[in-house]
Every structure is written in C-alpha cells, then in structure tokens.
Amino acid sequence: MFVRLLAVVVVWTILPVSPIRAAEVMVASWYDCCNPETANNIPFDKNNPHIAAHKTLPFGTELLLRRRNMRVCVEIQDRGPFVEGRDLDLTEAGAIALGFKKDGIATLGVVVTDCLKD
C-alpha cells in the first residue's frame, strides 16, 4: 500500500502543471478584433502572428502551433473564441502563417512551450 501511494505522489509532483496536456489537438479559427486592445490590455495587431485568444488559458501562456509542415509560436493575450467547437482564435497573420486563412478554420497540433522567449 505504501509503495503505491509513494508512486502516485512521485508521479503527481513530477508532471507539469498545465491546463492542457503537453501535446494536444485544438480547433482554431482567426479573427479581426474590433477593439483596439486585447483582454490583456496589449494593442491588437492583426499583422502580428504571435497573438492568440483562448477562453481559459492564463494570459502569457505560450503555445507552439503546428499544421502540416508549418509552425508558429503564439502567446495567449485575448479571450475567445466564442463559437462552439473552437478552441483558439488567431490573428489574420497567424492564420496565414499556418495556411488556413481562406478556410477560416483548422485543426492544429498544440504544445505548451516557451517558444517566444528563445
């Protein structure tokens, strides 16, 4: 009994604390914000591919997004999307970088990382 409990405690303390798993798939769309600032009080710039919106991830969370052979790093700076079945909103530049501007929606591989700090 003690060995099992110890194993659970060790695993629990080693795993990273994150609202999403280390690697995940999310449905993303892109948006053109009507407000001059994001919910995190930074200027919204549709030409900045590094701004993203998520309903619950903490502001400042950095994600590496992948689609086919394309990738972009984003930082959660806004809230949304507010459409059922979608997990992330990217700027127009982010959608262009991942090749889904015309389609408007895409399934992306997502990894929590410090990709913008490198």
Describe the protein's architecture and organization.
The chain has a single domain, classed as RlpA-like domain (Barwin-like endoglucanases). Strands 1-5-2-4-3-6 form a six-stranded mixed β-barrel. The longest helix is centred in the N-terminal third of the chain and has 13 residues, at 2-14. Strand 3 and strand 4 (70-78) form a beta hairpin. With 118 residues, it is an alpha/beta fold. The protein has two helices and six strands. Residues 2-18 have low confidence and may be disordered. It starts with a helix and ends in a 6-residue tail after the last strand. The protein is globular and about 30 Å long. The chain has helices at 2-14, 92-97; strands at residues 23-30, 51-53, 62-67, 70-78, 88-90, 105-112.
Number of helices: 2
Q: How large is the radius of gyration? A: 16 Å
Oligomer: single chain
Assign the structural class, choosing from mainly alpha, mainly beta, alpha/beta, alpha+beta, or little secondary structure.
alpha/beta
The first-level CATH class name:
Mainly Beta
Number of strands: 6
The named CATH superfamily: RlpA-like domain
CATH fold field value: Barwin-like endoglucanases
Strand order of the largest sheet: 1-5-2-4-3-6
Number of domains: 1
What is the CATH architecture term? Beta Barrel
Level of helix content? 10-25%
| Helix-strand pattern | HEEEEEHE
**First-last Cα distance:** 44 Å
Based on CA inertia axes, which overall geometry fits?
globular
Note poorly predicted spans: 2-18
| Biggest sheet features | 6 strands, mixed, barrel
Mean pLDDT: 84
SS strand fraction: 25-35%
